[in-house]
Specification:
7-stranded mixed β-sheet; 15 strands
Length: 333
């Protein structure tokens, strides 16, 4: 039986610095406002992914995707759901488990081309499509510093599989212990330690590849420790996302002296190769050589307060919001 109403969370105002309680607001919509057209499906959202890139989407600036508009449903980097009805000519069926960018909403009408039916490979779950088998995993796979966030955790493991000596960086002793004991990195460094700079130089020496999702002072430190022909992968800059006036780099001239390369990375450029990555990562999940961890927040209403956890380091593992249980029809799959 369909509900009379459903909830959405929209952007109320653009934050200047930190995300605040009034950055977003909840809206109650009538269920009968949802109209499914040709080659579309109505999806009940079960989980949404929370990712650092979402902070950039709140800025009204030119980027690789348009900013979220004021009053618009907050965009998500990924989501899971179950098809509850389909329009004429849709390629989906009622009960299909799908992934897509449904946004912060309990229900969404989505074009067929904007989502994908998923069938978790043996040894995996549907939730893995928001982590190691989703954008997080694709980012790590195609990007080869590695922080203890969801992307960094997988970069660590893929680096070890490739035979690299891997140094991880995290913000607590527990996260460092997890990187070393569970993920098998050669050394994990706590960037909050008063001896971090000395620890970094001792553990790293001079680096060949640096995967950066943080930016700021630690990227500056990495620039000072480059081998000749080193490569820096710029995937993100979470340390500056809430800074209204982020600082520029100072140590970039080292790139010249060491004939090194620093290049921006957007995972969408590799979309045609995702199936290869999913197959390889799924095999690692199944045999235990690749591990994943989730931090699950219950309830769509808690998404606004959960998003800032990414910037304080309060989450341990991939941060997702559980929006609803899968409807009973999914048991027939």
């Amino acid at each position: 039986m369909s509900p009379n109403t459903f909830k959405q969370i929209v952007l109320r105002e653009r934050p200047v610095a930190d995300i605040l309680p009034d950055t977003f607001e909840s809206k109650t919509k009538a269920f009968d406002e949802l109209h499914v057209g040709k080659s579309q499906a109505l999806v009940q959202v079960t989980y949404i992914s929370l990712d650092p890139a979402m902070r950039g989407w709140l800025r009204d600036v030119r980027s690789y995707v348009p900013p979220v508009k004021i009053g618009e449903v907050m965009r998500s980097a990924g989501g899971l759901g179950v098809v509850v009805s389909v329009g004429e000519g849709s390629k989906f069926q009622k009960g299909d488990l799908v992934q897509g960018r449904f946004g912060w909403t309990e229900y969404a009408v989505a074009d067929d081309e904007s989502m994908e039916k998923i069938s978790p490979p043996p040894g995996t779950t549907s939730l893995d499509f928001l982590n190691t088998l989703g954008m997080t995993g694709m980012t790590a796979y195609f990007s080869y510093r590695v922080p203890a966030g969801a992307v960094g955790a997988l970069v660590c493991q893929l680096g070890k599989q490739a035979g690299a000596r891997v140094i991880g960086i995290a913000g607590t002793s527990d996260k460092c212990a997890w990187l070393e004991s569970d993920l098998g990195v050669d050394k994990a460094l706590n960037y909050k330690s008063p001896t971090f700079r000395e620890d970094f130089a001792k553990a790293v020496g001079y680096l060949d590849v640096y995967f950066d999702n943080v930016g700021g002072d630690i990227l500056e430190l990495a620039l000072s420790r480059l081998n000749q022909h080193a490569r820096i992968v710029l995937c993100g800059g979470i340390s500056a996302y809430n800074d209204p006036q982020p600082k520029g780099l100072k140590g970039y001239l080292t790139l010249i002296a060491q004939r090194a390369k620093m290049q921006g990375f957007i995972v969408f450029d590799y979309a045609d190769q995702y199936p290869v990555a999913v197959k390889k990562i799924a095999a690692g999940l199944a045999d235990g050589s690749i591990k994943s961890k989730f931090h699950i927040v219950e309830g769509l209403q808690n998404a606004p307060s959960a998003l800032p956890m990414l910037f304080s380091g309060a989450n341990v593992g991939k941060l997702v919001v559980k929006v609803s249980d899968e409807p009973s029809m999914s048991s027939k799959l």
